[in-house]
Amino acid sequence: MKEFLSREFYGNTVEHYLITVAIIIGGIIIVRLIRNRILMLLKKWSEKTETKLDDYIVKGIEKFGLPVLNILVLYSALHYLTFSEKITKIINNTLGVVITFYIIRMFSAFVRLLLESFISKQEGGQEKVKQLNGIMLLVNAVIWAVGLLFLFDNLGYDITAVVAGLGIGGIAIALAAQNILGDLFNYFVIFFDRPFEVGDFITVDDKRGTVEHIGIKTTRLLSVSGEQLAFANSDLTKSRIHNFKRMNRRRIIFTIGVVYNTPPEKLEKIPALLRTIIVDHERATFDRAHFAKFGAYSLDFEVVYFVESSEYVQYMNIQEGINLKIFKTFAQEGIEFAYPTQTIIVEK
What we know:
There is one protein chain. This protein is α+β, with helices and mostly antiparallel strands and 348 residues long. A hairpin with a 3-residue loop joins strand 4 (207-214) and strand 5 (218-223). It is built from eleven helices and ten strands. It has three domains: 2-156, no CATH class; 187-246, Roll (SH3 type barrels); 250-333, Alpha-Beta Plaits. A five-stranded antiparallel sheet has the order 6-5-4-3-7.
């Protein structure tokens, strides 16, 4: 038996091969036990707690910890065998690549978790979480670039020239793509400063519409006339934006003109009549009504009230009801509306 175990094949004894196989089998069994027993108990425990931190830790162990553990078991088993210098280098480099891959993925998942936790606490956070893909695209690019540089450095490559080349190339790319990079950074401004969000109704200069998509390069709106409007993010951050979605109440001001031959006693009644008409509407809050000025062909009354909603359709329904009621009330009171007229006086 000892003679059999001491026999060599490809530079290793049978005993070393058996130890390697035993370590691999034993390691696989241990990892399976951790997955099926210990990890399941941790999952049940984490589901009972109020915090989500332990849920993320357990999920991270399952997604990243167990694969790395399998790789370490395989590496420990192969450590008992003797290989040529070339094969040993290949094994070590392969281990470094795999470990680096999982570390980069774990770090990327950790950054995404932090961003989701930060954003979900904000108003409308669940909707903003869906927009994280654009940010994570850039974050992942940076993480992978840094991770690969460290990997190449550990593999023995001289990264000084690579970093210098990337620096020169980065400057050239930045100069050539100023507008694209400007839109990209302004995307971060929109994302974190939140001047508007998906679903908000906004006005930009003379354009208005509902925000449909906030992208890395452009933001798209569905206009009131039906077509899609695309704005560069840089243009939006430089413009004055009116966000009607965040308007708690709408202030309405309008003018009514009556004819000059209206009797004084009826002029005195008009502010009270306007107040009564507006107060009758449940969602309207009266502010004031005054005899404002003497117009070119009318006596003008200025009316101000608030609609306790930001909905444009609701405002129009209330304004329509007020206009109809004013028309009926003035007709009953014998008050005439003014319209553009000219009086020509001819002297003898």
